[in-house]
Amino acid sequence: MQGVPRRLPREVSSPGRIRVWDLPTRLFHWSLVVLVVFSFTTGQVGGAWLEWHMRSGFAILALMLFRILWGIAGSETARFTHFVSRPRTAFNYAREAWARRPAPSVGHNPLGGWMVVLMIAILIAQATSGLFVDDEIATQGPLTAKVSNAVVEKMTAFHHYNQWTLVAAVALHVAAIAFYRIRFGTDLVSPMMSGSMEVPAGVMPPQPVQRSSLSALVLLSLSAVFVYWLVVAFPKG
Q: Of 12, 128, 150, 208, which residue has the fewest beta carbons closer than 10 angstroms?
């Protein structure tokens, strides 16, 4: 879900396409889609696929850490300060969207912003709990030896049930995209692919704050190094 009206210093004087999503944000989004689907599938299949399931989980954890960093230091529309609104604002926006067409906007809308936060929280919880999972057959998370058996049991149970919370959140996200498409004729998928979207006249565009792909690569590398230390070096310490 995209599009938050912002009180910014300039407006689009006539309809046209503007850049909304930077390349790192788009690559993050679609990489996460692939990894989540892959993780869920391999987790259900089990067996020898659980090794790849865990590797995918490590990659998701690294992506989540990167998204948090990019939400602080990234481009304007990727920043949490741009799209995380007050709960009342999100509630009012939901009522407006249900009753009539909401005001056109750029970036994540108030509901979409909270969906991003929710998805990050669920995915971090799922990936982190996976570090402590023990299926009592052949697969153990890298940090199971660092905690008690009671903690391992609780984390394993949480990891199992939380996957359905994730499925529900993904279904809600897809349903919201379909809702915007059917009710308002608004395409929320193409902008996340191309990076640009049509903006009506009078809509506040995002501030021209763009971070280089190199900056994103550095942050992603730092996130990957931390996860590598967490799952390889730390357990041996």
A: 150
Rounded to whole angstroms, the Cα distance separating 51 from 141 reads 10
Task: Please tell me the pTM assigned to this model.
Answer: 0.88
Distances (CA, A) of 190 to 55, 65, 91, 131, 195: 29, 25, 26, 35, 8
> Is a pLDDT exceeding 70 seen at residue 104?
no
The pairing of beta strand 196-199 with beta strand 16-19: antiparallel
Burial of 100 (0-12, 13-18, 19+ CB in 10 A): exposed
pLDDT band of residue 5 (cuts 50, 70, 90) is very low
CA-closest candidate to residue 4, choices 82, 65, 58, 121: 82
Q: In angstroms, how far is the first alpha carbon of the chain from the final one?
A: 43
- Average model confidence (pLDDT) for the chain? 87
Decide if 170 contacts 36 (C-beta within 8 A): yes
Whole-number Å distance between alpha carbons of 203 and 6:
9
Q: Cβ neighbours of residue 170 under 8 Å, at least 6 residues apart?
A: 36
Mean pLDDT highest for which of 33-37, 71-75, 206-210?
33-37
In 3D, which of 115, 18, 23 has the Cα closest to residue 75?
Answer: 23
Angle of helix 110-130 relative to helix 87-99, nearest 10 degrees, comes to 120
DSSP-assigned letter for residue 209: -
| Domains, the chain | 3-236 (1.20.950.20)
